[in-house]
């Protein structure tokens, strides 16, 4: 069985990629390690980069096509760092379209200029241009990831970020023998950008993927996919760390390893109280750090086999939505077990037991087990008082079709999505951060007219949000570039309320610039008088992406101590494109270290 392994950045030195580490004084009183990377983003073809000619067409499902990549790799290279490091990444866009890159889960203190979402914190990097991102790691320790934040580019432009403890410190558990990034994703036979353009032109649904993937490979249950299948070699009696990332555009996943239980030790670069489980659950954007220990002797191996399937099965919570229900597979191989099968003999690995594709209760039960470690070294500092409360409804909607259009969404309209019935529309000729920074002292709107500071704290209408028989008039929404302004240091509580408009479903909501405590979650409509009494204010999970349950709600708290412009959106990519987004603008504080940094040189221009 052929082995396919994930690339590590430090193994790819050459004309197209440089890596180096230098120690130098950093901001404030501490010192940080400085790490430098070069990313070349290109549509794979015969392109000359200095002394290197690269061609990175990819074949999946018996079909060959060119995809957007970083350094010719899919998935892209892994970034390795330690807590407190400053990582510099030079992105060279040698493709044929605009692109940006986001460092998912990195707070970027005072530095929104390197956060990455196009037209929110920067204009995109145009073909032939370059931009240097400065990634400031602060408290983060564990598994994060990076991805394109332009159009649907993150379908293939993504990779893991591994953040280890600072030198001289250790994990809050025994150091594993090895650590392995496991990236869950999707593959389309067609051109993803063309599929997006078609959906936006017609106002209809986006075509689901043709396969789900583990480290870029669908696995041997798909045609023409056996030889490249990802294989993880292991030895008996050792502990391994899986750094799991859900990079999918549309699918949530259950993941498990046959014959082995997983011990969850972290989520979204924050440690949790360890617990053991047969499977984990990841919504798009979320990460999980999990350990497993291999069997010590051949007697522990099922049927004395040396092969075990790892599998990722999608979860779909809205029966009205067509989705890719295929299970992706990879293989765990004991290299020191029984002899390999003879040539031409196909091994039969054992398969993990995973929940069904509609088992939302299993996903909710998994999330309920997440608790912050809350130790002296990794405390949980949950805000007790709240300065600003928001109730934000989540909905997939319709926008009325123009008279001269033929729309393919529900009722002949366009599909849309919203927070509090505002379908966010990003500007296309300026970015909100640049406008805010350059105009905040010059005009009343403080942003050169690209935004309106009136995103509502509550939905415009209170109704039975999760009822199955909602009136059709609730389905319509309207576009707007409406943002929410926060005072520096304010404690914010946001209750995300799911709705049944056009069908109830889970929603993975991601906040840039902050992680937050998920203090509560529950079914049905949030009750502000009753439900806060059940909040966990002791050791709630600390995350950057929360999976709001189908027909339910989730409550988060964060302290707005990171000045800048920060995007908040659903991590189902089509929902983000349809407008399930908004922006928080956090004002500067009074102290020198409470103010947003000035823009770096070389910011891309629109």
From TrEMBL:
Its EC number is 1.10.3.2. SUPFAM superfamilies: Cupredoxins (SSF49503). The keyword Mitochondrion does not apply. CDD domains: CuRO_1_LCC_plant, CuRO_2_LCC_plant, CuRO_3_LCC_plant. Residues 53-166, 179-336, 455-589 form the Plastocyanin-like domain. The keyword Chloroplast does not apply. Its cofactor is Cu cation. It catalyses: 4 hydroquinone + O2 = 4 benzosemiquinone + 2 H2O. Gene3D superfamilies: Cupredoxins - blue copper proteins. Residues 1-22 form the signal peptide. Keywords: Apoplast, Copper, Lignin degradation, Metal-binding, Oxidoreductase, Repeat, Secreted, Signal. It comes from the Eukaryota. Pfam families: Cu-oxidase, Cu-oxidase_2, Cu-oxidase_3. Belongs to the multicopper oxidase family. This is Laccase.
């Amino acid at each position: 069985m052929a082995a396919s392994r994930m690339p590590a950045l430090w193994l790819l030195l050459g004309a197209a990629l440089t890596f180096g580490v230098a120690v130098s004084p950093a901001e404030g009183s501490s010192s940080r390690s400085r790490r430098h990377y070069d990313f070349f983003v290109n549509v794979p073809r015969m392109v000359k980069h200095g002394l290197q000619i690269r061609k990175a067409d990819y074949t999946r499902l018996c079909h060959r096509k060119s995809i957007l990549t970083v350094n010719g790799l899919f998935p892209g290279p892994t970034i390795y760092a330690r807590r407190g490091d400053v990582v510099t990444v030079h992105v060279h866009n040698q493709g044929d379209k605009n692109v940006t890159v986001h460092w998912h889960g990195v707070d970027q203190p005072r530095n929104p200029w390197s956060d990455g979402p196009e037209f929110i914190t920067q204009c995109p990097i145009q073909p032939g241009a370059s931009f240097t991102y400065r990634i400031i790691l602060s408290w983060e320790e564990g598994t994060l990831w990076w991805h394109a934040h332009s159009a649907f580019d993150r379908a293939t432009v993504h990779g893991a970020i591994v953040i280890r403890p600072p030198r001289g410190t250790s994990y809050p558990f025994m150091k594993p023998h090895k650590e392995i990034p496991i990236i869950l994703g999707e593959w389309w036979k067609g051109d993803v950008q063309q599929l997006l353009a078609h959906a936006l032109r017609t106002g209809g649904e986006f075509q689901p993927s043709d396969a789900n993937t583990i480290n870029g490979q669908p696995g041997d249950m798909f045609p023409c996919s056996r030889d490249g299948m990802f294989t993880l070699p292991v030895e008996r009696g050792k502990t391994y760390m899986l750094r799991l990332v859900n990079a999918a555009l549309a699918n949530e996943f259950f993941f498990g390893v046959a014959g082995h239980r997983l011990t969850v030790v972290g989520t979204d670069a924050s440690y949790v109280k360890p617990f053991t489980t047969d499977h984990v659950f990841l919504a798009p954007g979320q990460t999980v750090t999990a350990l497993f220990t291999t069997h010590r002797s051949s007697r522990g191996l099922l049927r004395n086999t040396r092969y075990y399937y790892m599998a990722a099965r999608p979860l779909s919570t809205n029966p009205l939505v067509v989705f890719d229900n295929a299970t992706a597979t990879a293989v765990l191989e004991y290299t020191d077990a029984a002899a390999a099968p003879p040539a031409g003999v196909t091994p039969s690995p054992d398969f993990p037991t995973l929940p069904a594709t509609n088992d939302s209760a299993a996903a909710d039960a998994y999330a309920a087990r997440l608790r912050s470690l809350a130790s002296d070294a990794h405390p949980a500092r949950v805000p007790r008082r709240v300065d600003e409360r928001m109730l934000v409804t989540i909905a997939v909607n319709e926008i009325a079709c123009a008279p001269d259009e033929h729309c393919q969404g529900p009722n002949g309209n366009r599909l849309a999505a919203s927070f509090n019935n505002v379908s966010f529309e990003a500007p296309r000729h300026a970015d909100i951060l640049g406008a805010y920074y350059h105009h905040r002292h010059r005009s009343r709107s403080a942003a050169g007219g690209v935004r309106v500071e009136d995103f509502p704290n509550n939905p415009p209408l209170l109704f039975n949000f999760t009822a199955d028989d909602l009136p059709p008039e609730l389905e319509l929404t309207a576009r707007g570039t409406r943002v929410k302004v926060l005072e520096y240091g304010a404690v914010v509580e946001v209750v995300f309320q799911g709705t049944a408009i056009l069908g109830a479903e889970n929603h993975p909501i991601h906040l840039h610039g902050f992680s937050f405590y998920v203090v509560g979650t529950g079914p049905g409509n949030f009750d502000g008088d009753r439900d806060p009494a059940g909040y966990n204010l002791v050791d709630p999970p600390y995350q950057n992406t929360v999976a709001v349950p189908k027909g339910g709600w989730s409550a988060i708290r964060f302290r707005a101590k990171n000045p800048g412009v920060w995007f908040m959106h659903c991590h189902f990519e089509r929902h983000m494109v349809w407008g399930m987004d908004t922006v928080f603008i956090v004002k500067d504080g009074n102290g020198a270290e409470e103010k947003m940094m000035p823009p770096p040189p070389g910011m891309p221009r629109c």
